[in-house]
Amino acid sequence: MIQPPDLDQQVFVRHRNLLFSVAYRILGTAADAEDAVQDAWINWSAADRSQVADPKAYLTRIVSNVALERLRSTQRKREAYVGPWLPEPILTSADTAEAVADAESVSMAMLVVLETLSPLERAVFVLKDVFGFSHAEIAEAVERSEAAVRQAAHRAREHVRARRPRFRTDRSRQREVTERFFSAATGGDVNALMELLSPDVTLWTDGGGKVRQALRPVVGAATVAAWFAAIGTVSYQGVEPADMNAELVEINGGPGIVFSGTGRRVIATVTFDFDTDGRITTIHNVANPDKLQAVADGTTRSLGTR
Questions:
Q1: Do β-strands 91-92 and 300-301 pair in parallel, antiparallel, or remain unpaired?
Q2: CA-wise closest residue to 290 among 268, 270, 272, 271
Q3: What are phi and psi of 54, to 5 degrees?
Q4: 64-112 confidence digits (pLDDT tens)
Q5: β-bridge partners, 92
Q6: Quick one: angle between helices 135-142 and 146-163, nearest 10?
Q7: Which of 71, 160, 212, 286 is the most exposed place for a label (fewest CB within 10 A)?
């Protein structure tokens, strides 16, 4: 006879997606977020759960603390990273109104801004501004005083506002521009690409020293357009143009492109940021193979905040 799953395991599974959503926003990598969730499970399994009045709050507190410690331990490695450090992209789904509302907080552009915060500020911002926890709840989660949490929340919010102004670009417009970019890039049409790019567009590439990429941002519509127009004419990471596959997908809550080679090996992802007119202002190109596993796995995640 098959035994029903352990009740405590059911509780954890029910909140697992939320825990990953918290950890991923704090850490910026799917692999580290999964490890943080696994550590939370170990802590949950060892806890006296009869004393837990609110499992959701308890589990969120655990995973937040674990993620914060992991972020502190990895910060030095990120500072020594070869070239720009970009977040690890993930495939997402925005088929509900709630998912659309949550998309901005998990965008590549937002995660890049969060990377400039201190670990404490980042954890506090995620828990307060994204997930709506109270200062008192966050203080307990990160083991700080409520006053310290309020100060960190204020600093983080001002920092994010200064670096991440809220542009209201219609999602259908974003999709349309991405499709046109996709067509122009794969067709090598420099002029069509130029029409889609802001004059001061910036391309950030992350190869992590594993594959050749620009070690500094590429700036300007003409230079960026030429970079992408070359996709259909030169080999990339040993993949000839005839063997290159490109697919429009949703990455981190917005439209993006996945490039793959022979055997469907994922070799890069491209995501975009837009201005109020729908022109592309920033492009994030992740090519470090260590950061492409979550996309290569093909797992589509829902990163809601409920």
A1: parallel
A2: 268
A3: -130, 90
A4: 999 999 999 988 888 888 999 999 999 998 654 455 567 788 999 999 9
A5: 301
A6: 100
A7: 212
